[in-house]
Amino acid sequence: MKRMLVATTVAAMALAGSVMGQDAPFAMQIKARQGIMEYRALNIGVLGAMAKGETPYDAAAAQKAADNLVMTTMIDMSMLWPEGSDHSANPASTADAKLWTAEADVAGKDAAFAAAAKAMQAAAGGGLDGVKAAMGDLGGACGGCHKVARIPK
């Protein structure tokens, strides 16, 4: 009896894992876009830690992080955001369905992030003051989209 219970529990966990895993709607797209966002967060974290004085300013590391951010803006992510790949379709997503409405202005917010990343790229290697000055627009560009169309964690 105990073996049957264990086997049933393991089977149920495997089934739940496959539902929440690759078999869930838009699982691959969500995982890919979350990976890009995590990579952006990593690089913003490097710059933010310098701007806050948590780590010493390092021109080479700041420039690398800023260059990486700009590179992410060159990726065509349109295939990673199919309509319906929001939290209601797949709980792995923190995207709100509002993301696909005209009011969300995703293209405008994407352009704002790209501009902020380029401004950071221009400033990053030139000194800590430049990094500090560029952080506000960069953070604002991230928050501009997240505040409109992301389910709070």
Describe the overall structure:
This protein has 153 residues and is an all-alpha fold. It has one domain: Four Helix Bundle (Hemerythrin (Met), subunit A). 65% of the residues lie in helices and 0% in strands. The longest helix is centred in the first third of the chain and has 25 residues, at 27-51. The protein is elongated. The chain starts with a helix and ends with a helix. Mean pLDDT is 87; it is low at 1-21.
Q: Find the CATH superfamily.
A: Cytochrome c/b562
Structural class: mainly alpha
- Name the overall outline: elongated
Q: SSE order in H/E notation? A: HHHHH
Count of helical stretches: 5
| Largest pleated sheet | none
What's the quaternary structure here?
single chain
Q: Which whole number gives the mean pLDDT?
A: 87
In the CATH hierarchy, the architecture is Up-down Bundle
Instruction: Provide the helix percentage.
Output: 55-70%
Q: What fraction strand?
A: under 5%
N- and C-termini, Cα separation: 40 Å
- CATH overall fold name: Four Helix Bundle (Hemerythrin (Met), subunit A)
CATH class: Mainly Alpha
Total beta-strand segments: 0
Number of folding domains?
A: 1
Radius of gyration: 20 Å
Residue stretches low in confidence (pLDDT < 50, at least 5 long) are: 1-21
